[in-house]
Amino acid sequence: MTISTLIILVCIGLLAGILSGMIGIGGGIIIVPALVYFLGFSQQSAQGTSIALMLPPIGILAAMNYYKAGSLNLKYAAIIAVTFIIGGYLGSKMSLVYFSEATMKKVFGLILMAVSIKMVFFSK
After folding, report:
1. What is the 3 state secondary structure string of the chain?
2. pLDDT digits (tens, 9 = 90+) for 55-68
3. CA of 100: how far to CAs of 42, 94, 107, 118, in Å?
4. I want to staple 16 with a disulfide (CB 3.0 to 4.6 A). Which of 6, 26, 39, 47 is the partner?
5. Residues in CB range of 74: below 8 A, 6 or more apart
6. Number of structural domains, the chain?
7. Which domain holds residue 92?
8. Using CA atoms, how far apart are residues 120 and 124, in angstroms rounded to an integer?
C-alpha cells in the first residue's frame, strides 16, 4: 500500500464517518463510489469492503450520543438490524451471482439519483 492510497483511505473514512454521524449516511453513498473512482475497485469489491468495515464500529459512538440525547429507538433499531442482516446476505448473493459489474453500477447510480431527486425536489 502506498502513502497516497493510505491518505485516500483515511480521507474516505473521515468523510464517511463525519457524514454518518451528522446525517446518517456514509457507507454506500460515500465509501463505495470513492473506492471505485479513486482506488479503482470493482463495484462488488467496493460494496464488500464497505460492508466489512462497518461490521465492528458501525457508528457505535454516534449511536451512544443519540442514545444519551434520547434520540434513539432501540426496539426499532433491533428489528431493523435483524432484518438488515437477512437482507444483506440476500443482497450480496444477488449482486455476486446474478448481476454483472456494469449492471451493479447502473443500479447503484439509479438508486442514488432517485433518492437525490426526491430529496431535492419533493421534500417538505
Report:
1. CCHHHHHHHHHHHHHHHHHHHHHCCCHHHHHHHHHHHHHCCCHHHHHHHHHHHHCCCCCHHHHHHHHHCCCCCHHHHHHHHHHHHHHHHHHHHHHHHHCCHHHHHHHHHHHHHHHHHHHHHCCC
2. 666 668 778 888 89
3. 11, 10, 11, 27
4. 26
5. 67
6. 1
7. 3-121
8. 10
For the beta carbon of residue 29, count every other beta carbon within 10 angstroms.
19
Q: 85-97: per-residue pLDDT in tens?
A: 888 788 888 888 8
Cell of 51: 460492508
Q: Indicate the residue type of 19.
A: L
pTM metric for this prediction: 0.62
